[in-house]
């Protein structure tokens, strides 16, 4: 055979699996349809957030976390309710224990470190037993996405130098080879070389064919977020109708091809209707891939209006319940929505997802971090979007602001008096220490956490207070991102077949496997769990495949 193991996909899960195989002394061929410049996949572009439980960083910030609380939050968010959730449920329990146990030390041994302030993502839908994080758990990698890819890329490249790893970039897999019921290799087309920038579109022009054989194949090819047609085909009725217009949070090569290819080889593909798309997407003024969108990581203060100008009810608060808000917005009849805020809010509360939007954290520069996060004004990337992004409107009065909103979406005008009334009603709630407005209550409660008060949540103020201006409106789009379902796998990342038993020689990890089991998140994510799911499932796949070929 050509190798002990073939790994299909050079993203984070593929790198972790390959690193484990190298450590076990196995020979690996790492196959990817993109060029070598794309190594690390979508993880390279990420903010680098990781979910840890009861970490030293949490304890230093006064956060009391535990396995029991994290498990309560995970199960309340996942809401497992299907027969096919057998393996996802076991993966969830294993992952929460990993996040509370060896995950932090295991990563630290490989050179990974995190920013000391813990973020509070997905704050929940309102009940202790429901969706959301009861406490802050979002740990930002020091170095963002590149900082989480680098330790594993380094190990893989060292394996290549040792003669254990062979790279096969620009190799597009079209078929898994099955021999006597076992997967024994891959075949497909060699694509023409490319010098395109990382994540930019590349050609699919073939220049040859290939066939590679091994004792095991690990599929780590990612999800479907770059394939809007497939996203719409799998869109669940519970979220309403799919948007006619979406922007992409992942490159076009995140196309879902390997899901169908694995199914043809006998793999069970489950929970394909579970998916994770953001509702705070903005068009990138400097795009890298087609329909390139960036997600705003919002604090809790912006007023959220649907496309008709109506304020969203609970749980439609910024940063609280992503899919709950998506469902509300799909009922509005519009593909867009609006944030209405002030300069004081954008300076304190707007962060942008993606390593390229956070040069201070990505570059591991303490000096730049202090300048960007603690000095007056918004960060440089946020100010660039405010001045150059087509979705941003800045005005001194509510009349001017609404006029700008209507000029941007003439087919969906909002009424200036209606917007003024809603903003005034919200502002009036700040005249007392008491409030029935749950958004006001939530932002006051958020500032009781010193991490939020320091760098994340603006001091409560009236939107129409001219000293806090100018006023800002931001048009928001649905941003495609993650598949929560995928190839069904057991705790060794071995792919389960349609007959309920493992497919001999076939493993899957990362997003293509629903980050473990075919859907470790169930219906909802607690955030910081996508990269961690790639790491945990990739590690399991590499170790199990190494045992198989021993």
Chain-averaged pLDDT: 97
**β-sheet strand percentage:** 15-25%
Shape by Cα distribution: globular
Low-confidence stretches: none
Query: For the report, how would you describe the main beta sheet?
Result: 8 strands, mixed
Structural class, by secondary structure, is alpha+beta
Helical fraction equals 25-40%
What is the helix tally? 18
Total number of β-strand segments? 20
> Gyration radius, to the nearest Å?
23 Å
What does the secondary structure layout of this molecule look like, with pairings?
Elements: E1 3-8, H1 12-23, E2 28-32, E3 49-51, H2 56-60, H3 67-78, H4 86-100, H5 102-109, E4 138-140, H6 144-161, E5 165-169, E6 171-179, E7 182-191, E8 206-219, H7 228-234, E9 247-248, H8 257-264, E10 269-270, E11 275-283, E12 293-297, E13 303-306, H9 322-330, E14 336-342, H10 343-349, E15 351-352, H11 359-362, H12 366-374, H13 380-388, E16 392-395, H14 398-408, H15 416-428, H16 438-446, H17 450-455, E17 471-483, E18 486-487, E19 494-496, E20 502-508, H18 530-548
Parallel strand pairs: 1-2, 1-8, 2-5, 8-20, 9-17
Antiparallel strand pairs: 3-4, 6-7, 7-8, 10-18, 11-12, 11-17, 12-15, 13-14, 14-17, 16-17, 19-20
Helix pairs in contact: 1-6, 1-18, 3-4
